[in-house]
């Protein structure tokens, strides 16, 4: 049975939540109400089964949902159980990629956002960088300047994006930091998968290095207006240099950043005899 895919314009139909989802939602309410934090434990499986009057499989499914969302870690053994985690950005990033995979996102749309957000982020970091941050930014710039030749171009693109990730780590607004890191991760993944090349890349690399150097100077001087101007110019320039490959981004959204580094672009499902694949 093949089902026609739902139209992109129609949001997912409102289905009735499964019991396990109701339980996982209820556990979240409890975590929030009790202000539970990293390392706190949930009641054991047996207690949850009694509390919700549910089968073991249902409670396990509810816990699994929380684990996939990054809210808990499930530990086995006599001292095991569900321990609360503070999720990193990975689960949120994965969900957002799943969503974007089916949208026709292109590089122009990414830069429409990046141009605004990177500038806001850059400004938010003025006066917050400590000496250790400056050292990391300068080490990044030195590494960037050392790159030469064809092979190094990828590395240079990574380093260029890493410079922006370093700034994001100092951002006091976690939402702004997340959005910028997410955009940078998408651009970084493009370099890995599609080997995105910028035609006049030498010129582009030099321009980037120059912008970074000027930014660090402006940060040292804590000159907010200059930081704003330089980052705005840097992003406008980066958009201008955006390669043709970066204009079609949607296809690789489903891969997580981690799986990219294994260079396994081929799915095991490709090995399946065609009669098992219904399209
Ligand atoms: Zn840059």
UniProtKB/TrEMBL annotation:
UniProt-recorded Gene Ontology molecular function terms: DNA binding; DNA-binding transcription factor activity
Per the record's keyword annotation, is Cell division included, yes or no?
no
Ranges for the HTH gntR-type domain? 17-87
Asked if the record carries the keyword Transcription regulation, the reply is: yes
The record's Pfam families line, in alphabetical order, gives:
FCD, GntR
**Key words, A-Z:** DNA-binding, Transcription, Transcription regulation
Recorded hits in InterPro entries, A to Z, give: GntR_C (IPR011711), TF_FadR/GntR_C (IPR008920), Tscrpt_reg_HTH_GntR (IPR000524), WH-like_DNA-bd_sf (IPR036388), WH_DNA-bd_sf (IPR036390)
Q: What is this protein called?
A: HTH gntR-type domain-containing protein
* Source species of the chain: marine sediment metagenome
């Amino acid at each position: 049975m093949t089902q026609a895919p739902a139209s992109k314009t129609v949001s997912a139909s409102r289905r009735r939540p499964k019991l396990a989802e109701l339980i996982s939602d209820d556990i979240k309410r409890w975590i929030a109400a009790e202000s539970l934090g990293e390392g706190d434990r949930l009641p054991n499986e047996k207690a949850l089964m009694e509390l919700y009057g549910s089968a073991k499989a249902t409670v396990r499914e509810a816990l699994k949902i929380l684990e996939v969302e990054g809210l808990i870690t499930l530990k086995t053994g006599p001292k095991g159980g569900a321990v609360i985690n503070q999720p990193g950005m990975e689960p949120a990033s994965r969900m957002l990629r799943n969503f974007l995979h089916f949208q026709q996102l292109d590089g122009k749309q990414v830069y429409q956002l990046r141009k605004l957000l990177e500038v806001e982020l850059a400004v938010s970091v003025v006066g917050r960088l400590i000496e250790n941050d400056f050292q990391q930014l300068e080490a990044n710039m030195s590494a960037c300047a050392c790159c030469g030749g064809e092979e190094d171009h990828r590395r240079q693109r990574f380093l260029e994006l890493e410079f922006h990730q370093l700034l994001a780590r100092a951002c006091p607004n976690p939402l702004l930091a997340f959005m910028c890191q997410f955009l940078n991760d998408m651009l970084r993944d493009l370099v890995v998968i599609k080997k995105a090349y910028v035609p006049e890349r030498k010129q582009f690399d030099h321009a980037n290095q120059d912008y970074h150097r000027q930014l660090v100077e402006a940060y040292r001087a804590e000159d907010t207006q200059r930081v704003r101007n330089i980052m705005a110019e840097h992003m406008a320039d980066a958009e201008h240099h955006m390669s043709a490959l970066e204009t079609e981004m949607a296809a690789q959204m489903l891969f997580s950043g981690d799986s990219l580094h294994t260079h396994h672009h081929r799915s095991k499902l490709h090995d399946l005899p065609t009669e098992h694949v219904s399209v």
